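Design request, tokens follow.
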């Protein structure tokens, strides 16, 4: 899986080459290659245990690799100490010194590094301005909200004046609104600083909104590396297609023959679908996202139309999620929030083959 092109546009700021990490007989990272461009915001995305935090800790120097090399800014740092790698790291926990003020927390590492006092003042002032925590400098962590504490934790990395920032699920301990607010702040921060940022999360919304590119990981390997648009619209395999999207993509098992996908209930000519190679045939899986299923007045313009029975309705405010039955298949449909469908009703849906994804039933790779 790691033979795919994983080079970044421009000169690499961080380069991972043939990286292996094992704990005894257990392989956690396997032959991993990844180039991250100067100023890029790269998100490592995956479920628990996929290796994303492990990879970040290897880059940070907190774990010794079994094989391979790590380069930062053209320097081989595979065996360098974390303090010598030119990185700033922000963890899931704030880990602030409770007895120190915000200013004391921001300046503590710089004082230990014997940075001149006027330089410390300059860096702390700059970080406080960028993160909008200037009024908080004389407070202690106990007097701060969760979002303010995480801003201070980010500021502590920011004052180091490094080229590469590493974030390990920094927003996961915050409530939903604070996460959304700080996500916007992080994006603004990157737009302003243009530093290289590597960000670990299991939250696909964070990944899609923050990243220049996303690396989706599974079992210590990169399943797909690409822009949010590429990941979403052209998933490389069924795993990626299923992982990205909420609710996840609808899948139907069927057969592809002469450019037509068919199941017991459905026949869909794949006109407009771009195959990755020559048009194949045989057992296949069709995937289509709930938001790409059309209803109402738009159905008449859809190339393929089919009747379904509404099973369950979930009003979400801005939209409505409908669970319907297409034969024996449960089919998820995202409709307008003003939709008034009810369980038991029948409705006609429209499908566009050009917005679908086809996967080989054996390899589950995109066709």
């Amino acid at each position: 899986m790691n033979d795919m092109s994983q080079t970044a546009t421009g000169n690499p700021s961080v380069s991972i080459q043939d990286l292996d990490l094992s704990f005894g007989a257990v392989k956690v990272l396997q032959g991993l290659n990844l180039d991250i461009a100067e100023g890029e915001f790269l998100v490592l995305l995956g479920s628990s245990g996929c290796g994303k935090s492990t990879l970040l800790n290897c880059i940070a120097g907190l774990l010794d690799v079994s094989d391979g090399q790590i380069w930062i800014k053209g320097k081989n740092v595979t065996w360098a100490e974390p303090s010598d790698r030119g990185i700033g790291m922000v963890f899931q926990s704030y880990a602030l010194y409770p007895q120190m003020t915000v200013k004391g927390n921001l300046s503590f590492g710089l004082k230990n590094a014997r940075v001149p006092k006027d330089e410390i003042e300059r860096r702390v002032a700059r970080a406080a301005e960028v993160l909008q925590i200037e009024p908080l400098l004389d407070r202690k962590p106990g007097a701060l909200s969760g979002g303010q504490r995480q801003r201070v934790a980010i500021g502590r990395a920011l004052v180091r004046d490094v080229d590469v920032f590493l974030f390990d699920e920094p927003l996961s301990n915050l409530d939903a609104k604070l996460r959304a607010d700080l996500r916007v702040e992080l994006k603004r921060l990157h737009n302003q600083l243009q530093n290289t940022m590597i960000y670990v999360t299991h939250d696909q919304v964070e990944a899609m909104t923050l990243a220049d590119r996303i690396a989706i990981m599974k079992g210590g390997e990169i399943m797909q590396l690409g822009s949010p648009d590429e990941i979403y619209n052209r998933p490389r395999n069924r795993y990626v297609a299923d992982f990205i999207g909420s609710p996840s993509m609808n899948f139907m098992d069927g057969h592809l023959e002469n450019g037509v996908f068919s199941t017991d209930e459905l026949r869909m000519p794949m006109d407009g679908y771009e195959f990755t190679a020559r048009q194949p045939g045989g057992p296949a899986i069709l995937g289509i996202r709930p938001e790409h299923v059309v209803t109402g007045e738009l159905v008449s313009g859809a190339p393929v139309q089919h009747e379904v029975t509404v099973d369950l309705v979930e009003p979400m405010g801005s939209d409505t999620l409908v669970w319907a039955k297409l034969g024996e298949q449960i089919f998820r449909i995202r409709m307008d929030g003003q939709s008034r469908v009810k369980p038991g009703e029948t409705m006609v849906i429209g499908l566009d083959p050009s917005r679908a994804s086809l996967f080989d039933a054996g390899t589950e790779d995109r066709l």
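Comment from the thread starter after seeing the answer: thanks! Residues 12-236 form a domain with the Rossmann fold fold (CATH 3.40.50.300).
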